[in-house]
Amino acid sequence: MKKFFLGLVCGIVLTATTAAYASDTIQAYLFPAKFVINGETKNPSDSGYQTLNYDGHAYVPIRYIAENMGSKVAYDEVSQTITVDNGFNVIDINNREISAGHLAVTKEGNHSVINGKLYIGYFAWNHKYIDGYQSMTKYSNPEIDVTKTDVKGNLLFWDNEGELMERVPYEVKNASLGEEQILALQTSSQTDVSEYAVVTLESKQPTPTQVFGGLGPNYIDAENKVNFAVQDIVKTGDYSIVRGGLYSVKSNEVSDEAPITITFLDASGKSIGEAKTTLAATKTAQLQFAVLVGKGDFTNYKSITVKVGN
């Protein structure tokens, strides 16, 4: 179901009103309110939302409030249920409209069983492609249910050193194509990943969204073999997830498996943490950008050093 306006009664007595809205049963007024959320002033009208005054109470756009407080909102049309959930803290830095959460990782023998939930936002999907696919398929293969698809991807488990423990595939069948939804997720790893430090998401379907914005300054190692430029950094818990361009300048001198260390520095040149990767990691994931994980908050870094080898 496409984005819609949801209201939440806040129980605030209001006296000022502006433009009126009327229907057969109620009369409400647009109320030009601003909100202070966790100390930060927000104006819903900047995002196309409005606050209503009805019968002396404020009806606040629940999606706007929830998302500004780090929660996900999903509407199930069949059951007419609105779900608000702040437990989706496993992100895909390549598709921010998809996240996982409520993970329970249980060791069973020499591997782990993973249960959780997957949130897919409306804008996670390529709707132009979906519209074309549905239109053509309805006529060419009418027996195919064009409203359903299989959701696929990987959960990446990292240890406390920022080393990838395992890339664990997942698949959820018969998801609603093009819709916002919360799905149950279950998969198993090949090894025991129950002692992981952080998890990231790598969605394959829906596909990664188009990346907007350019790369930051380009940094190269002392031997001019590899360069790296940051595209995005997201802090999650005690760790930072980094997306950036990683390229080999002298491909004949750097093997795909050679360790590459990216160190993030503050304004005084002091290290605030590091993340490690290889050229092979980006190729294996078949992503346009390298994705790295490191302990610490890198969001306010001032410069970077690049090192190839141990």
Automatic annotation (TrEMBL):
InterPro entries: Cu_amine_oxidase-like_N (IPR012854), Mao_N_sf (IPR036582). Residues 48-120 form the Copper amine oxidase-like N-terminal domain. Keywords: Signal. Pfam families: Cu_amine_oxidN1. The keyword Ubl conjugation does not apply. Transmembrane segments: none annotated. Residues 1-22 form the signal peptide. The keyword Isomerase does not apply. This is Stalk domain-containing protein. It comes from Paenibacillus aurantius.
